[in-house]
């Protein structure tokens, strides 16, 4: 259970957490008052529509349930949907986008629906190639950042409306804190720095924070797996495992991704209970939308020679809203109600507007997700240094009784306790994101990959790796032989990393002019393969991918440099260290150098490559 203490700040502030999911989103918040123990609240009750365009469309103020969706597993959530008109103007979003009559209005006015747009931000790995076939394209002229920024703006308006409507003197309260709001944005375990930079840009475009260093510092990121752990901690779900000294495994099953995270309890010097990752977190594109996509492929084949093949999209939507959620027994036939009593085609199982499917066929739509989660849990358990016997299933997909029962049957046979929080599978990430900000229970994480930088090594005739790369040998400005193509590992894969732990390596730069070394750019790469010590970039080449560039200003260091004489003329050499902090939820960098025997430091800018294609 949470042992949260009173807020020690001198002024009131608000923490807003936005969990933008593939199919549904959530908002949680906490109002921090000096001397008071913070509480976590969710935006879940009746509020007025947050977007005026829909109110005008429906002629009047329509109270919408917020979020406005039933049967999604306990607490309702906000549909992650936006309608745009032909000019790219947002006409409806979230709860408004599923209001009665909205589809007719959209068709009459030529509005364009944007859904599942979060997955357009995904890392472009080969294993995620199947995602492209499943997700709709973005509206013409809109980037993923544009759509995300519009949706974040909508969530912000809804949070404001909810707080103003449900708190005493809510309007005055909001005015007192609107310039002092910290935001927590969640993302799948598989998202990296590039995706975080895109999300930060969307938050700025949405007007959440100013586009400056102070404004952007008010945005914090947390993985959905870690947010879910915090929810389980504050709900008391990890207590038994903690008493046994065992690890716990969190399965966040969402609309797009399945996030698998393993944690164990650690004990700090001040006796505060904290957790640490005990295995590298994993992310798989096997969420609930891929069950729907499998159903669509099946329906296209089944109805290929029927007049109802033109209704596949509509039938798929009906399956998604009803049949998929109700499915519980493989031995019972399943029905998709999509039409009227006059709709009939007995050859394909359509009678009285219902399409009959075998339970085994519906089960096959779920099977890739079931197998993926089961194997991922086994892999995490095998790689963890301590025993794991407790597994918690959260997320919107966890509302599926079929998924839960299949996983429970499989995992309990191997001696694992498998459960899901009662009626709150959908609020775990949003609530947990606020808890992450307030309680900060995870203090160490595990490196998913090997991180390092391309470099060169001084040529050594006794090193066989050097002699077989003679074509890469060159003469440096100082006259030494060196070989290109090496990879200098800064952080090895599977390393346990504490939040304040620094990883640093020493480097040098040679240029013919001072201008050339005043601003340096160091490329940071990931190696995602299985070689324990990836020393050369021409070995297992496809497993190397660009992560980012660390940019640093060395003008202070260069001002007293004297030129050196080399075989090709004068040159300058600068020596520096790159310091990386991997233990936080977002990569940080510094640069250091020695001046008059004293180490000096400066922050370094991390710039992500927007065009990078990641290897598996």
TrEMBL record:
This is Actin-like ATPase domain-containing protein. It comes from the Eukaryota. It comes from Crucibulum laeve. Gene3D superfamilies: 3.30.420.40. SUPFAM superfamilies: Actin-like ATPase domain (SSF53067). PANTHER family: ALPHA KINASE/ELONGATION FACTOR 2 KINASE, HEAT SHOCK 70 KDA PROTEIN 12A. InterPro entries: ATPase_NBD.
């Amino acid at each position: 259970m949470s042992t949260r203490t009173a807020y020690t700040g001198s002024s009131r502030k608000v923490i807003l957490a936005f969990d933008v999911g593939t199919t549904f989103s959530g908002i949680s918040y906490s109002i921090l008052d000096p001397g008071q123990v913070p509480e976590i609240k969710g935006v879940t009750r009746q509020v007025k529509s947050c977007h005026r365009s829909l109110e005008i469309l429906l002629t009047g103020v329509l109270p919408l349930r917020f979020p406005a969706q039933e049967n999604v597993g306990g607490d309702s959530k906000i549909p992650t949907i936006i309608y745009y008109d032909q000019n790219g103007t947002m006409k409806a979003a979230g709860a408004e986008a599923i209001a009665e009559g909205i589809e007719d209005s959209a068709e009459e006015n030529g509005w364009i629906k944007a859904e599942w747009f979060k997955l357009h931000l995904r890392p472009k790995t080969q294993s995620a190639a199947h995602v492209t076939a499943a997700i709709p394209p973005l509206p013409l002229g809109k980037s993923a950042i544009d759509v995300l920024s519009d949706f974040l703006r909508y969530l912000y308006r809804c949070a404001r409306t909810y707080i103003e409507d449900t708190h005493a003197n809510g309007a005055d309260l909001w005015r007192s804190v609107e310039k002092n709001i910290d935001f927590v944005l969640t993302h799948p375990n598989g998202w990296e720095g590039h995706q975080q930079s895109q999300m930060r840009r969307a938050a700025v475009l949405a007007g959440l924070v100013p586009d400056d260093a102070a404004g952007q510092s008010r945005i914090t990121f947390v993985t959905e797996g870690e947010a879910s752990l915090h929810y389980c901690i504050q709900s008391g779900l990890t207590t038994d495992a903690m008493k046994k000294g065992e690890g716990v495994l969190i399965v966040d099953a969402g609309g797009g991704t399945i996030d698998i995270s393993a944690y164990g309890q650690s004990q700090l010097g001040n006796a505060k209970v904290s957790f640490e990752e005990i295995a590298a977190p994993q992310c798989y594109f096997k969420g609930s939308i891929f069950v729907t996509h499998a159903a669509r492929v099946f329906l296209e084949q089944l109805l290929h020679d029927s007049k109802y093949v033109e209704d596949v999209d509509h039938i798929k939507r009906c399956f998604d809203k009803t049949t998929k959620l109700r499915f519980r027994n493989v031995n019972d036939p399943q029905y998709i109600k999509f039409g009227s009593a006059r709709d009939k085609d007995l050859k394909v199982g359509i009678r009285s507007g219902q399409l009959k499917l075998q339970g085994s066929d519906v089960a096959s739509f779920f099977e890739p997700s079931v197998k993926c989660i089961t194997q991922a849990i086994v892999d995490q358990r095998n790689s963890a240094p301590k025993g794991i016997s407790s597994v918690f299933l959260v997320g919107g997909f966890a509302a599926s009784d079929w998924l839960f029962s299949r996983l429970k049957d499989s995992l309990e046979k191997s001696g694992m306790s498998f459960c899901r929080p009662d009626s709150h599978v959908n609020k775990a990430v949003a609530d947990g994101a606020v808890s992450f900000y307030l309680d900060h229970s995870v203090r160490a994480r595990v490196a998913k990959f090997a991180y390092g930088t391309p470099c060169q090594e001084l040529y050594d005739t006794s090193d066989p790796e050097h002699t077989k790369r003679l074509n890469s040998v060159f003469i440096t400005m100082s006259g030494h032989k060196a070989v290109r193509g090496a990879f200098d590992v800064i952080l090895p894969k599977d390393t346990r990393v504490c939040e304040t732990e620094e990883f640093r390596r020493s480097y040098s730069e040679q240029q013919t002019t001072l201008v050339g070394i005043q601003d340096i750019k160091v490329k940071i790469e990931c190696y995602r393969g299985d070689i324990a010590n990836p020393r050369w970039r021409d070995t297992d080449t496809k497993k190397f991918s660009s992560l980012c560039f660390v940019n640093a200003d060395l003008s202070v260091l260069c001002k007293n440099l004297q030129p050196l004489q080399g075989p090709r003329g004068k040159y300058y050499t600068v020596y520096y260290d790159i310091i990386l902090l991997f233990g936080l939820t977002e990569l940080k960098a510094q640069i250091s150098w020695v001046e008059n025997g004293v180490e000096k430091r400066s922050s370094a800018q991390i710039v992500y490559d927007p065009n990078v294609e990641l290897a598996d």
